[in-house]
């Protein structure tokens, strides 16, 4: 035990904020890789000769794999040093993205997205608990926020950045750029992280036991409905904007950058609100998304109307991650790591399910059908929040970090 305590202290001394920043860069890279196809579905479909719904599999597959990988990767890693687990996952992510840039067929691209999903789930699971091992106790909260800000920023900025790069030089260049970024992050992790011997893993029985907690079940249902609804529509945001505004690739990139900026603001606003009450924050977010998502299906008002709706969408969705994290961990304050594993699995499964259902709606009915389906699912999340009674743990959300 003394050896472990000494190792933990040395990790903090050798890690610190540079190591935390490197981990945040890792979470940014994996989520950017996951979201990248959203802004590139049209050119991917055109380049590989497949419809938009089929191209949407590049979103569905990694989300499904990540949902399984989140609890599986730490268990499979056993007693491997978590520093090298993260470095290896980032190296694998770089290879998958660089090979994706040269994919000759949709089947090859989807197969490579399986590797991306493995990296997403593994990095999320390992990174979630690292702040406490890298900085002094008084700094754990801000360090955890910085690590998870990589996810928030990637969710709202990765797509427009990828769209801009794809618009300038083609979708393959966007994948190659993220591959190079992943290599750089792998090097930074190798240089800046201290040795990180594994701690006690979350047992499967502990995770399963949380499903008997009513607040956890309700929180997971909110995550599934809200995130599935969002991605049912957002996966196809580029063709939606092309239809609604008649804008070209350059203007659409600008609209998505506005979405990203609004999303970053929404993330910090929701973080403050969720510290007081995650449920109330999610009530506002769900109500806004239930209106905005289907409203995008109406091709009226041109670029100005589309821009207003996109900014409102980004502002609302930017707070989803931090608020849903807070809701789940407030429902299980004594089992934050197990709740985190459930959150990661549910969130990534919802991303995949949203892309899948949206794609089926587009192929079987129409592009607006995906938006109306998304709005209906988000309304379902709002209904769950209205009917669910707030738990006592929610009142303790202010005193504890969202993920530990």
Automatic annotation (TrEMBL):
InterPro entries in the cross-refs: MFS, MFS_dom, MFS_Efflux_Transporters, MFS_trans_sf
SUPFAM superfamilies, per database record: MFS general substrate transporter
Membrane topology field: Multi-pass membrane protein
Domain named Major facilitator superfamily (MFS) profile: residues: 19-392
GO cellular component: plasma membrane
Presence of keyword Ligase: no
CDD domains xref list: MFS_NepI_like
PANTHER family in the record: CHLORAMPHENICOL EFFLUX PUMP RV0191 (PTHR43124:SF3), PURINE EFFLUX PUMP PBUE (PTHR43124)
Protein name: MFS transporter
């Amino acid at each position: 035990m003394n050896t472990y305590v000494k190792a933990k202290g040395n990790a903090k001394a050798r890690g610190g904020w540079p190591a935390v920043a490197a981990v945040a860069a890792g979470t940014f890279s994996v989520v950017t890789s996951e979201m990248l196809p959203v802004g590139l579905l049209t050119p991917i479909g055109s380049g590989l000769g497949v419809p938009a719904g089929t191209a949407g599999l590049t979103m569905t597959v990694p989300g499904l794999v990540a949902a399984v990988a989140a609890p599986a990767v730490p268990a499979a890693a056993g007693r491997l040093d978590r520093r090298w687990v993260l470095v290896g996952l980032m190296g694998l992510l770089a290879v998958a993205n660089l090979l994706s840039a040269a994919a000759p067929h949709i089947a090859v691209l989807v197969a490579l997205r399986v590797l991306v999903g493995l990296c997403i789930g593994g990095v999320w699971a390992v990174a979630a608990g690292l702040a406490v091992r890298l900085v002094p106790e008084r700094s754990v909260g801000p360090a955890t926020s910085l690590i998870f800000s990589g996810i928030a920023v990637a969710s709202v900025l990765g797509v427009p950045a990828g769209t801009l790069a794809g618009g300038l030089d083609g979708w393959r260049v966007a994948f190659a750029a993220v591959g190079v970024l992943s290599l750089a992050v792998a090097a930074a992790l190798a240089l800046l992280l201290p040795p990180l011997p594994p701690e006690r893993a979350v047992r499967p029985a502990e995770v399963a036991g949380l499903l008997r907690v009513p607040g956890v079940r309700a929180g997971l249902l909110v995550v599934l409905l809200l995130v599935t609804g969002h991605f049912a529509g957002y996966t196809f945001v580029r063709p939606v904007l092309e239809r609604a505004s008649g804008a070209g690739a350059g203007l659409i990139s600008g609209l998505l950058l506005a979405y990203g900026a609004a999303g970053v603001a929404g993330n910090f606003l929701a973080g403050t609100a969720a510290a007081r009450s995650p449920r109330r924050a999610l009530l506002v977010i769900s109500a806004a998304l239930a209106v905005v998502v289907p409203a995008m299906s109406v091709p009226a008002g041109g670029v100005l109307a589309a821009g207003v709706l996109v900014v409102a969408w980004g502002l609302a969705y930017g707070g989803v991650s931090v608020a849903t994290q807070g809701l789940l961990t407030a429902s299980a304050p004594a089992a934050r790591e197990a709740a985190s594993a459930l959150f990661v699995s549910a969130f990534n499964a919802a991303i995949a399910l949203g892309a899948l259902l949206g794609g089926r709606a587009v192929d079987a009915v129409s592009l607006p059908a995906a938006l109306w389906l998304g709005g209906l699912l988000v309304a379902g999340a709002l209904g769950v929040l209205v009917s669910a009674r707030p738990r006592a743990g929610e009142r303790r959300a202010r005193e504890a970090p969202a993920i530990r």
